[in-house]
Amino acid sequence: MEDTKQQWFKDAKFGLFIHWGLYSILAGEYKGKKTDHIAEWIMNHLNIPVEEYRELAKQFNPVNFDADSIVEKAKEWGMKYIVFTAKHHEGFAMYHSTSDPYNIVDATPYRRDILKELQLACEKYGLRLGLYYSQAQDWDDPNGFMQYRDNSSKDFQAYLDNKVKPQLTELLTGYGKIALIWFDTPMETTVEQSQSLVDLVKSLQPNCIVSGRIGNNLGEYMTTGDNFVPRLPYEGDWELPATLNDTWGFNKDDHNWKSPDEVIKLLLKVNSRGGNYLLNIGPDSLGNVPGGSIDILDAVGKYVQANQDAIFGTKRMTYYPYELDWAEFTQKPHKLFIHILKPKKVIEVINVNNQFTKATILSTNEELTFQNLVTCEGSHMVEVRIPKSYHAKTNYCICLEMKEEDPIFEPLEG
Ligand code: JFZ
Prior knowledge:
Elements: H1 7-12, E1 14-18, H2 23-26, E2 29-30, E3 33-34, H3 42-45, H4 50-54, H5 67-76, E4 81-87, H6 114-125, E5 128-133, H7 156-174, E6 180-183, H8 191-204, E7 209-210, E8 222-223, E9 238-242, H9 260-272, E10 275-281, H10 291-306, E11 327-332, E12 335-340, E13 346-350, E14 356-361, E15 370-374, E16 380-385, E17 396-402
Parallel strand pairs: 1-4, 1-10, 4-5, 5-6, 6-7, 8-9, 9-10
Antiparallel strand pairs: 2-3, 11-12, 12-17, 13-16, 14-17, 15-16
Helix pairs in contact: 5-6, 7-8, 9-10
This protein binds 4-nitrophenyl 6-deoxy-alpha-L-galactopyranoside (JFZ).
4-nitrophenyl 6-deoxy-alpha-L-galactopyranoside (JFZ) is lined by residues 38, 40-41, 184-185, 225-226, 241, 248.
């Protein structure tokens, strides 16, 4: 394996995104009006004036927030890194900013530095800590960009110099090792401006990775949109940020939770295409993580723990020209993993021309009967018999060992 500072990112596979800010207090509704958009955008979508929005800080008192238990859970779920919204578009700092009093310590009754607590918990449980920082949009700063508004009179450079750079410096000097900065929505940021932020990050922490949304192609990995999975394995480093319902920030009315099965399938799809799955939770105004998301993640975590060997240490799949609704594949040298997602009695994988030497249920090591076969059309396939006790089961993984390093998938002919 190549040894780069970004190797941890290539190996991470699964991370926890945390969207949390003053918008969590509103939970999707302001003065009787509901937003039909993602909840952290409520200030923008409902046109809440800055002075009114700022008042929210005075009631932010998330007494139930427990960094330790969230990070402990993330570890249990198999996640390797956390990305926390240090400052979202609303402009409020969720850490003790010394350059701007509009922050969790100086502007709220809570007065605790949430980020410091997350840092210590991450160090305790061995997870990496990354920070979301909205570098272009800032709806609180008169010179920060605001999408869907006229930004032409703004002095964006002044905002970068007076707010962004001091805050990035605080974040990269006060909270230990920062694994990555998750920049977002660059809008009209110029190449020079993006570059100056990259330079600042690297001057303070050379190993801190910069996300694709720094803009101007200066990021060190690609980020896709919510739940957008590339069709083909993607060669570079990439990450799919995803919600468990339809919002990032907490919305009390959004109960559109994905099922654990959907989430497991998505995780495997992302991993098999060589990416990391950054899955979001949105704590509420008291710091509680919605029970719905905990339940899903507990179920997903069980799959991940039982099948670690087929997730971590895997590499981007050799391209297979079929989509199977009952399975996802992952691979490692000399191993092909078939994640079984629908009940099966026999499985057939066609157009694969390897010499398979052994088949087992990954989590129990139980050996399975299998055959390398040639079809009447002359293409190759492998057939594996599933033991009776598994016929009704879903979400288990079969490990096929093979002589060759990689699967040899035959191209489609006709
Ligand atoms: C951005 C934010 O505006 C949003 O609030 C949230 O933080 C999310 C993770 O990131 O939203 C985007 C930005 C870009 C895309 C999708 C959502 N995109 O490129 O598809």
